[in-house]
């Protein structure tokens, strides 16, 4: 495995591979890697001859007062994990590489509508930050495939829409959520939980499962199901932002006749903002 820190070095590798007619798969990350990230790499290796993982904590997708400054950075451990998984190339740029003109008046990529609901409502500008940095990674890596986790389901849809609208010749692959044994979705931010909070955190997945079962039984009871879950989260000490059932294809509010739904939630527990979702198929 090779690690490069500059766009010039990245482009040189890509040029060599493309010259040899080799396919490329990219998995963008912010580092502090866990098994969820590694599952993306495993699938990337299955799909393409060459694999690239990027590690970059992207400031413009964090809001004021969010955890940009304290986001865990564990490059040496990450490199070991990636090498053990057979990665070809790690791209770990610094700020100047990806933001040569600074971050005040630079060009941004914005995907309309879907960026402004759910997480976008609570984190204004977040998805524009994501779309912008992912565009930069796409243009410089020119992958055939790019892999994203379904844990960040709204992000996955934003990227799919961006790729369609901007005609990027890249196939976007969504990967299943990897969970801890108690059901908590793996996340770098779980490290912010103290032991008591960590013990409580699996309630999120438990409520998603219970709510999915209820929804499948009585699709008309969506509102009550949402309110009941929000109430249970609050009672257990979470600060939920939303717990809602949406149409899986585009996250629009579900209307009668929709069969493919998804329950999505974002909830704070202590200093950790936890995100999770579960698909529901109605008969
Ligand atoms: P992050 O480093 O948190 O920005 O995540 C990088 C990529 O890994 C994103 O596409 C995430 O959706 C994905 N990812 C994060 N956590 C998980 C998980 N538990 N299971 C599967 N994919 C994940």
Commentary on this structure:
This protein has 2 domains: 2-175, Rossmann fold (3-Layer(aba) Sandwich); 188-278, 2-Layer Sandwich (Pantoate--beta-alanine Ligase, Chain: A,domain 2). Helices cover 38% and strands 20% of the residues. It is built from 10 helices and 9 strands. A 6-stranded parallel sheet has the order 1-4-3-2-5-6, with helices on both faces. It has a 3-stranded antiparallel sheet with strand order 7-8-9, with helices on one face. β3 (50-55), α3 and β4 (89-91) form a beta-alpha-beta unit. The longest helix is centred in the middle third of the chain and has 16 residues, at 126-141. The site of adenosine monophosphate has 17 residues, from α2 and β5.
- Total beta strand runs: 9
Q: Ligands in the structure?
A: adenosine monophosphate
Q: How does the major sheet shape up?
A: 6 strands, parallel
Low-confidence stretches: none
Please tell me the total number of domains: 2
- Structural class from helices and strands? alpha/beta
DSSP helix count?
10
> Span from first to last CA?
47 Å
Taking all residues together, what is the mean pLDDT? 98
Overall 3D shape: globular
Proportion of strand residues: 15-25%
> Which CATH architecture of the largest domain?
3-Layer(aba) Sandwich
CATH class of the largest domain: Alpha Beta
Rg over alpha carbons: 19 Å
CATH topology of the largest domain, by name, is Rossmann fold
Walk across the major sheet and give the strand order: 1-4-3-2-5-6
Query: Can you give the helix content as a percent range?
Result: 25-40%
- Secondary-structure element sequence? EHEHEHEHHHEHEHHHEEE
The CATH H-level homologous superfamily of the largest domain: HUPs
């Amino acid at each position: 495995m090779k690690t490069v820190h500059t766009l010039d070095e990245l482009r040189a590798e890509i040029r060599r591979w493309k010259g040899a007619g080799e396919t490329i798969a990219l998995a963008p990350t912010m580092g502090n890697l866990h098994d969820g990230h590694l599952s993306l790499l495993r699938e990337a290796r299955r799909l393409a001859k060459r694999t690239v993982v990027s590690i970059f904590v992207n400031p413009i997708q964090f809001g004021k007062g969010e955890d940009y400054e304290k986001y865990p950075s564990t490059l040496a451990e990450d490199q070991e994990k990636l090498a053990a998984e057979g990665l070809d190339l790690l791209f770990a740029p610094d700020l100047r590489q990806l933001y040569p003109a600074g971050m005040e008046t630079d060009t941004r990529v914005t995907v309309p509508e879907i960026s402004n609901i759910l997480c976008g409502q609570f984190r204004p500008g977040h998805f524009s930050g994501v779309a912008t940095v992912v565009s930069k990674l796409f243009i410089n890596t020119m992958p055939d495939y790019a892999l994203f986790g379904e844990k960040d389901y709204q992000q996955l849809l934003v990227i799919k829409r961006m790729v369609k609208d901007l005609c990027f010749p890249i196939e976007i692959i969504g990967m299943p959520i990897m969970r801890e044994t108690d059901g908590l979705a793996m996340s770098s931010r779980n490290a912010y939980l103290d032991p008591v909070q960590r013990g409580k955190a699996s309630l999120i997945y438990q409520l998603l499962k219970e709510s999915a079962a209820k929804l499948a039984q009585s699709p008309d009871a969506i509102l009550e199901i949402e309110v009941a879950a929000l109430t249970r989260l609050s009672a257990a000490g979470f600060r939920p932002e939303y717990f809602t059932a949406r149409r899986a294809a585009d996250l629009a509010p579900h209307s009668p006749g929709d069969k493919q739904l998804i329950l999505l939630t974002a909830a704070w527990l202590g200093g950790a903002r936890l995100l999770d979702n579960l698909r529901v198929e109605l008969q």
